[in-house]
Design brief:
Pfam families: Glyoxalase (PF00903). InterPro entries: Glyas_Bleomycin-R_OHBP_Dase, Glyas_Fos-R_dOase_dom, Lactoylglutathione_lyase, MMCE/EMCE_epimerase, VOC_core. It is a single chain. 22% of the residues lie in helices and 29% in strands. The protein is of the alpha+beta class.
């Protein structure tokens, strides 16, 4: 039988690990589980595991582990020769192109992202104008990773959920 699995963590690549830790702790309130640490290609258990994942030649990287308010882990990676593309928003390509956080103050969090070196990609929009108070916006962290902000939970946004009219 298949059952819904819990989300454990996400890995995010950045060009400056220390700046990323500061951004995510100050901006989103995530907390550090493991501070920035260097991992090297060697015969240690983690070195061998990374050879399996990245293949030969990765040499070294830095990593920090954070956690969200709902206990989802966030691995921040700074790889040797990390590059920030001019436009990281290639939504048409296979892979994760954004992650989403929830905050009832969508506008305030978007402003905080911008104030801490990120970018707001669009105006705040309503999902159901005049019907339900659900709002969203796409932003970026300082490294070009896309952050979406929802005012309400994923379940409420996409289900009948709350704020139904009496005629429904």
């Amino acid at each position: 039988m298949t059952y819904p699995r819990s989300f454990s963590h996400i890995g995010i690549s950045v060009t400056d690990l220390d700046q990323a830790v500061e951004f995510y702790t100050k901006t989103l309130g995530w907390y550090v589980i493991m501070p920035p640490t260097e991992i090297k290609s060697d015969d240690s258990a983690i070195g061998v595991m990374c050879d399996d994942v990245f293949g030969e030649g990765w040499e070294r990287f830095r990593i920090a582990h954070l956690a969200t308010g709902d206990r989802v882990g966030v691995e921040l990676f700074e790889f040797k020769n990390a590059e920030k593309p001019a436009d990281n928003f290639e939504y048409w390509k296979t892979g994760v192109f954004h992650f989403c956080v929830q905050d009832p103050d969508v506008e305030g969090l978007a402003k905080k992202i911008v104030a801490n070196g990120g970018k707001q990609r669009m105006p705040v929009r309503e999902y159901y104008p005049g019907e339900k108070p659900y709002r969203m916006v796409y932003c970026e962290d300082p490294f070009g990773n896309i952050i979406e902000i929802y005012s309400h939970s994923y379940e409420l946004t996409y289900s009948a959920g709350a704020y139904q009219s009496d005629s429904d």
